[in-house]
Every structure is written in structure tokens, then in C-alpha cells.
Amino acid sequence: MTSYLVRRVAGALVILMIISAITFYLFYAVPRDPARAFCGKICQPETLALIRHNLGMDEPLFVQYWHWLAGIFTGREFVQFGECPAPCLGYSFATQEPVFGAIVDRFPVTLSLTLGASVVILAFGIMTGMIAAWKVGQPLDKIASASSVVGASLQIYFVGPLLAFYLVDTLQLIPRPSYVPITENPLDWFTHLLLPWVVLSIIFTANYTRMTRSQMVEQLAEDYVRTARAKGMSSRSVFFRFAWRGAMIPIVTIFGVDLATLLGGAIITEQTFSLHGIGELAVRAVQNTDLPMLLGVTIVGAAAIVLLNILVDVLYAFIDPRVRLS
Amino acid sequence: MNETLLELKELVKHFPVRGGALIKRQVGAVHAVDGIDLTVGAGETVGLVGESGCGKSTTGRLAARLLEPTTGKVLYQGQDISHNSRRQLKPIRSEIQMIFQDPYSSLNPRHTVGTIIRGPMEVNDINPPGGRKKRVQELLEIVGLNPEHYNRFPHEFSGGQRQRIGIARALALDPKLIIADEPVSALDVSIQAQVVNLLQELQRDLGIAFLFIAHDLAIVRHFSQRVAVMYLGKIVEVGDRESIYERPRHPYTHALLSAVPEPDVSSEPRERIRLAGDVPSPINPPSGCRFRTRCWKAQDKCATEVPPLVRLSGNREGHLTACHFPEAPTTQGEDVVLDPALA
Amino acid sequence: MTTVSWSSEPGTSRGPGPFLSVRDLSVEFSTEDGIVHAVDNLSFDLEKGTTLGIVGESGSGKSVTNLAILGLHDPAHTKIGGEIWLEDQELISADRTTMEKLRGNRVAMIFQDPLTALSPFHTIGRQIGEVYRKHKGASKKEARDRAVEMLRRVGIPQPETRVDHYPHEFSGGMRQRAMIAMALVCDPDLLIADEPTTALDVTVQAQILDLLKELQQQFGTAIILITHDLGVVAGTADNVMVMYAGRAAERGTVREVLREPRHPYTWGLLSSMPRLNSSVDVPLMPVRGTPPSLLNPPSGCPFHPRCDYPKLAGPELCFNQRPSISPETGHGDACYLTLEQKRELRTAKTEDHA
């Protein structure tokens, strides 16, 4: 188990390096010069060169990347901004704030959104899927299946404003979405994020309903389920204690893959409800050709996904004893 | 036996087992086949028996050169084909054909029977007189299927008929050697006999040599002129049919034969040997004689010295046994119970 | 091999009826392609402490029959007719809770492939123990102790350690032993073994069959042994029933059926199998053709399309009328040929073969 984790984390670091290198390279492939943007409308060549030097952009690409990478572990010194302690992701070209600090500020918003939505997706998706499988072929199964098709075809930017209009403005059932830190007021944190969670999870939930249903139906036809029944286990315990375990294995696997998509969905959701999360940072960084911010957001997002995937694999081993993490 | 068609020399196939912390490296190997010698003469039928994991299927695949040996040699008509490339193997492929166990998964479900049987002719660019279609219809007739079923799909046939399609495909190129890997074990009893009879007719009429791989000792006996018994990657005993079934010398051969359930209620008791436990893992086979962990005659020597496969005194010519303490040439009526769990 | 008469033995102090009695059982499944007539009008009895071998090929209805005894079919798609009596309890009409109390307790089952039939997610000990807890109300500790005891009883070495292992950590033979331990944990009166050795190697098969026999001698369990292999039946069962296309073709003691087989299908099965001492120079004599589709079983005797003598009993009899087993008790078969005809045909056949 330990050696497995060591191997996975080492692999993750390699992946993150490759991702950051690609982002770095792609950024310079775009024909826009951030130094020119700093320089303003009337820009003297000397001023431009100075700005370039101050930003560290007059060095070869490889060296720039090396400085950036080293900064994460050792911190670095900027001519323009001064000392940047480790972990240093540089300063934003656009707002001149430290990238790491900006991300740390916004991270709880996106994390709350993603984790909350994950809980809704898994709890609700698996529950409806189980109900459908329990009542397979009966009206309840058909309703669950039909609504999952409808759910899968909805879009965040369409459902979001629509639900906001009815639930917040017209019926005034829940407060307008915003972010209240959980440490400040857990109840407000919950109620204010409820709508974004629901909206973000709608598409995914439908998928998990369908998957859970088909997996359960498949598992119920397995030999070991028949054995459990031959032992005198009640249908209920066969369903919830035996078949359930088998059905969860592919669900957990798919969920690991879906995490990245979920993070993408979180960015759209943040935009839809004007939540100040990582997504907002990312969109703005792209608009402003803000390399340090873009790199920072990309690397933190990628790290989150890679970490969660390791977590999912460990979970997998707990569900299925045949998978030995060695 | 006349001219030698296929010769396996000190053949070894190890499948690597990988593991390790940061970097995956080979930590061991499955000793699937561990140094076997076997010949198949032209027109001869050789049976290969053993329990699961003994390496009999791997041996078959090595002989057909679907696998490349780790060490050792595969000689076909005296020519070393052990490490030949795909291109070099092409002319030989048409002469060695395989029949597989599962008639359900070895036929492409989207192809008609005609396409399936014609396949080998197309790949090898062979144009029989009268055209390929005519040849396919001939083949269908040979294996006892209706030639008019040319355009049907595999799922329209029963298991036994599907196995016949597989046989027709193997015959398409007039092979000299057919390697049949458990060709009847997936079939119902009454159908098994039909397919065994068909294979025997083909063998007799067309003079094809067979390497017949099976776990069913009675069927192997019925089909094969010579029989090799495998255990954990090694041949423990080989000889003509009569030697192996009437005068076996290796304790494992005895145990296998005595375990076969026969549908007889005759009064004369059969030899009864019950082996303890299961076959050990081929990743870590026992030292010395591999059978010693389940053998009732094992002594210290068996753990240290690998018994050579040799002709023992009392054996007929060609009857080789790999055992330090072989059974007397004939034993009958003994009742040995060796499983501590059952004793 | 002891010969046990088919009908209930006189002189024993048991109740009037046999221990297990299946009467006119029929099982039909509705599928997308139509109705499958899996079992058709099947009757048989089983006495305590004896073994009945049910022999047949795939689709003969041998497994379906036994799933019906345990009520393990899908009720939405299955129609069951007839009666199954376990002593004084009728099982087809029994409600769900009765059946749940019966399964694993009085009637247990073991399956062909112990790898897929055991849950991969639970330890062997837990799978054995939970049957005991469910039916005997034992505590966790008692159930675990019982599991260890059962593993020891079926010959698994180091049961105290093995009890906490998962099925994938066992070898094939050990898994089937564990499966047997699980089936016998509540000392059932009836054990149904569905092809228990088909997935195993021949030397391991011999071990498992010995184990079953031995446990039966110790505990007096009645066993139904389902198999396609007449050889397995020969060494293990007291009585045998040969099934074909959902019907009984022949039944009797093992000695009667193997020595003096009466039904042409039984002849075919026996002559299909090569023996270790049969002549290798004559070809096997298989049953021609293939087993019928149960969606649309043949009229008359279901075996007539594959039978060599369908006209011998009369021009149309075999084609139009279903034969039922006669005589009612003892060695009987479902064929219209007279005993005299059968004897002549069989003598001719064996002479042919020799």
C-alpha cells in the first residue's frame, strides 16, 4: 500500500510537470505580448525591454520555465515585485497580486462547489438508480429512467438562470447564490450554495442513475448473488449487501474520470452565478494573457484532479479485495 | 513413426511477472513450459494431457508458433522456426493449423460461414481449382455440414456445428499438422463423440498429423497413438498409448488414471489413488521433481535432483519416464488414500 | 456400491411419504423469443441419506428443476406447475419467508464454478458464518468458530487463518471445499450439488466427490447430484435419473441404469463416451443430430428426431404421443419399445461394437 502510494504520487508529480510545461509552451505560441499590455498605449522600445526584464521575460523559454518551477519549492526574487516566498507561483501580470495568494483565497469556493456537487451526484444518482433497479420494469423504474434522459440533456447555463428565477426571485425559497465561508456560518454556506450544487449536479446525476441501475441489474444476475439467495438471504440483504458492492466498482472508476469534467462544470457554474472562485480567475487570466495566473490555476486544478484520482483508487481497493495496491 | 514433422527441443516459455515500487521490473516468471522435448511424426496423432496450469495449451501455441519460445527450439520439417518473423512464418502457417476449445468465441460473429472458411485461402492467396467458393462448399461437406449454409452466420449453428466450422477453416489450406486445443471439452457428451469421430476420419483419410491437447484421459486415449503427460511445465511421462495407459510408471500418471470417473459398476475394484491438495503455482515450482509435493513416494533425492526423462528398465522403446522412484511396470488393485484430509 | 431400492424401504420408522417428492413438475420461462418449456411433467422421489444423480446435457432441464426446488427462479418470467413435497411441506405454494428459512438451512446448494459463486467482496469465514447467524441466530463469535470448524471438516488446512481469506486467495479445489462447508454449515437434510466438479481438474474432482460421500455417511444428508458425466454418477450416486429435453428419459438404481440401460438416449450417452479400457479401433457411437430447442420441443417423444428406432413401436406412436416413465417405480424409462425389443437392440448394438 505505501509503496503503491509513493509510486502514484511520484507519477502525479511527473504528470503535473508535463502539464505545466505544455501550458508554458502554449502560452508563448499565442501571438500576444503581455509586456506590451503593461507598457500602455505609447510604448518606447526601452520601456518595453525594461518591463520584459522585470517580468523575467527576456530570458530563454527553458530558463523561464526553470525559474518558475524552482520558485514553487524555493521561492524567488522579482525585480518588480520583490521577495516571493515558497510556494511561489509568481505575480499576476494583470492585477500584480501574488498568484498563490489569489488561488488560496478563491480555492474554498470552487472546492465547496465541487465537493458539494459530488455528494449530490453520488447520493442522488446512486439512490435513484438503486430504486430503479429494485423496481425494475415497474412504473417507478420507468419514471427514473425517463427523468434521467431529460436531466442528461439539460445545460448549466440554461437551468441555472431558470431555477434562480423561480426559486430565488419568484418563490423566494432559497437565498441568492453566493459564497459564505463554512467557518463563518455553516448554515448560510449550505443554503447559499444549494442552488449551484443542484445545477452543477443535474447532468451528472442522470448519468449515475442510469449507470447504477444497469450495474445493479447486471450484478443481480451474477452467480454469487444467486448463491446468497440459495443461502436464505432475504432479497433486501442480497440487494444491499451483495449486489451493491459489485455495482459500486465501475461507478467509482467512472467517477474518478468524471472529476475533471466536474471541475470544468464548476467553472461554468461559477460564471452563471457570479461566484468568485478559481473558474473566474481562470477566465480572467485567459482574457488578460496573464501567464503566471493561468499557469497557477492550471497546475492547482490538475493537482486537485490527480490527487482525487489517487484517492478514488485507494477507495477502489477497499471496495474490492481482489485489487491489491502493490 | 515415419518422417518427423514437428520437433520441440528443450522448449521453454516463461511469462514475466512484473512488480516493484517506483519502477516496474520483472520480479519472477510463470514457468508455463519448462524444458520439454516432443516430436510429432507425419500423419501421427500425439496426445498431450495434464491438469490446468500444466502448460499443455502453451505448448500447443508454441508449436503453432503463435507464441515465441523463451529458449529452446521449434523445428518444423527440420527447419528451425523458433524465432522466425511473421513473414518468414507465412508459408508454414498454412501447414500448421489450430482448432480451439471455444467454438463460440473463435469465430467472428459478423462473418458468414463462407467468409470464415475462405479467410485462410485469401490471406495466403490460394486459388483452388474450381474457385474458393466451391472449395468452401466441399469443406463444409467434409465436416458434415450442409454446403448450402455457406451464407449463414455462426450464431445460427449449435455448439457442435460451430466446432465443425472451425475444423473446416483449419482444413482450408490442406494442413499437414493440426494442433487441437481441447477441441471437444466445451461440447455436450453426445456431441463430443460426433466431433471426435470426425477428427479421426479426417486424420485417417487425409493423413493429417495431430497434436491433441485435452484434459480428458479417455478421449486422448481414444484419439492418440502416442501420449505425453505434463505436470507443471514438464513432461513427466511419454510413450505409446498402451505403455501410458496399461503400464504407466510415473506416480502422477497412475494418480491421473485412477481419478478418471468411469461409468461402470463392475465388481473388480480399480486402483484408487487420491492426491492431496492442488497443483502448486507455476510461478514458484517445487525444486527437483515438481510432483514431489503431492507424491507419496517422494524422498530427499526428489527435492534436490530433477529426474531425467529416460527409458526405464521394463519400459518399451519410446516410453520415457521422469521419476527417481517409478512404480513397478504393473500395479493393480491397490487402494492408496493419500489425502490427509480424507484419511 | 450398495444397491438401494427406489421406493421407500419397508421397516424404517419414517413417515409415509418419501423425504423429497417431486410430482408433475413443469417449468416454463417466457423469453423474447417465446416460451421455453424447460421442465415438462417431471416426477421423482428421494430418500433420506441417499444420492440421486440427475444426468443430462445442457438444456435438459436438470439445473432448472433444482432451482425450482429452492424457489430460485425469477418469478416475473417463470410459470411453475406441479408439487414439490419436502416431507410434509409443499414448496411451490410456500410463501417467501418460508422459503428463505428453508434455503441454506434445510436445503442447501453448491454450484459449478466456486469462483463466481462465492462473493468476491467478503471473506470465506463471513460467507460461511452469515448462513449460520441467519438460520441459527448465532453470535458473530459463534458463527466464526463454526466457520473454522466447517473448514476443518471439509479438509482445509490451517482453518483458523484461512477463515479470514477471500475466495480469490484460494485454489479451485479449496474454493469448492469452502463452498461445501458453506452449504453444510446448518446441517441441511438435502444438498443439491449442481455440477460440483465440472470446473475442477480430474484429481481434484476425485477428492471432492470422496468428500461429499464421506460427509453424507457422517450426517445422513440426502444429495441431488446434477452432472453431465455418467462416470461421476457411477461412483457417487445410489439412484440415477437421465433427463432429456425437460423430461425424465430413464430412472433406476445406478447399477440398473448403467448395466441394463433401457432408453435409446441412455444407450447413446454411454456409447458416446470412450472408456479407459474400450477398444480404440472402432469409432465412438454418438447420438446423431443436436438437442432440440425447448422453445419448440418436438411432438411425441422428444427424442424421436435423434432416435434410431422411431418406427419400431408403430408407424406413428413415437411421433405423436409423449411416452411417460413406466413402470411407476423401480427401473423405468419413457420409451414405447417393449422390454423385449430393447433387449434385442442392445444385444445387437454391443455385438456390433465388439
From TrEMBL, chain A:
Coiled coil: none
Keyword Cell membrane: yes
Principal localisation: membrane
Gene Ontology BP annotations: transmembrane transport
Membrane-spanning ranges: 9-28, 113-134, 146-167, 187-206, 242-268, 293-319
InterPro entries linked to this entry: BPD_transp_1_N, MetI-like, MetI-like_sf
GO cellular component: plasma membrane
Protein's name according to its UniProt entry: Peptide/nickel transport system permease protein
Organism: Microbispora rosea
Automatic annotation (TrEMBL), chain B:
Protein name per Swiss-Prot or TrEMBL: Peptide/nickel transport system ATP-binding protein
UniProt-listed InterPro entries: AAA+_ATPase, ABC_transp_ATP-bind, ABC_transporter-like_ATP-bd, ABC_transporter-like_CS, Oligopep_ABC_C, P-loop_NTPase
One of the GO biological process terms: peptide transport
A Pfam match: oligo_HPY
SUPFAM superfamilies, A to Z: P-loop containing nucleoside triphosphate hydrolases (SSF52540)
Keyword Transmembrane helix recorded: no
Top-rank lineage group of the source organism: Bacteria
Keyword ATP-binding: yes
UniProt keyword terms in alphabetical order: ATP-binding, Nucleotide-binding, Transport
Entries under Gene3D superfamilies matching the protein: P-loop containing nucleotide triphosphate hydrolases
One Gene Ontology MF term: ATP binding
Stated family: Belongs to the ABC transporter superfamily.
Domain named ABC transporter: residues: 17-257
From TrEMBL, chain C:
NCBIfam families found in the cross-reference section: oligo_HPY
Source species: Microbispora rosea
Keywords recorded for this protein, A-Z: ATP-binding, Cell membrane, Membrane, Nucleotide-binding, Transport
Topology term for the membrane: Peripheral membrane protein
Gene Ontology cellular-component terms listed: plasma membrane
InterPro entries registered for this protein in UniProt: AAA+_ATPase, ABC_Ni/Peptide_Import, ABC_transporter-like_ATP-bd, ABC_transporter-like_CS, Oligopep_ABC_C, P-loop_NTPase
Stated name of the protein: Oligopeptide/dipeptide ABC transporter, ATP-binding protein, C-terminal domain-containing protein
Domain ABC transporter, residue spans: 22-270
